Amino acid sequence: MRDSIVMPRRKTRQIMVGDVPVGGDAPIAVQSMTNTLTTDIDATVAQIHGLEEAGADIVRVSVPDPESAAAMPEILAQTNLPIIADIHFSYKMALLSLDAGVHGLRLNPGNIGSRDRVERVVKAAQERGVSIRIGVNAGSLEKEVNEKRKAAVLEAEAALKAEQVAAEAEAAAEATTEEASEEKAAE
User: At CA 87, angle to CA 84 and CA 89, rounded to 5?
Assistant: First the structure.
């Protein structure tokens, strides 16, 4: 019964995140993310330990600023799970995280700057054998992109609403015409 509801896995290449195999024929790895301030080392380490006890295999930690990057060596020293540095906007935080010894990076190449910066991060990760997960979502987009996207979404929603109102008006008009025709026929 269970096999009938499990989706077939897409064939992928296996990589390593620390000592955890991901992809290929490896078992599914559970990844979670801390929601503490990374600079609060005690709280972040406690949350990682809690995630480990709950069964997580990999933990992602946000590295938004130099202070968070500076906390990474201590966090890594106090934890057993592979840690992925979640990078937004600054290629320098990716480089600092790699220097700290993280096991993986999650970044959006579109928001860390020029092609040269992306290449520097990729080269540094390759030199250390660290995998990079590419992730893009609204939370990782620059403010200007979000504002532009927001305007486009609002415009599309307004156009859709206008179409819906027009369709409802047309349906109401047709119903009124049908009612009038039926009343006339009944006379």
Answer: 175
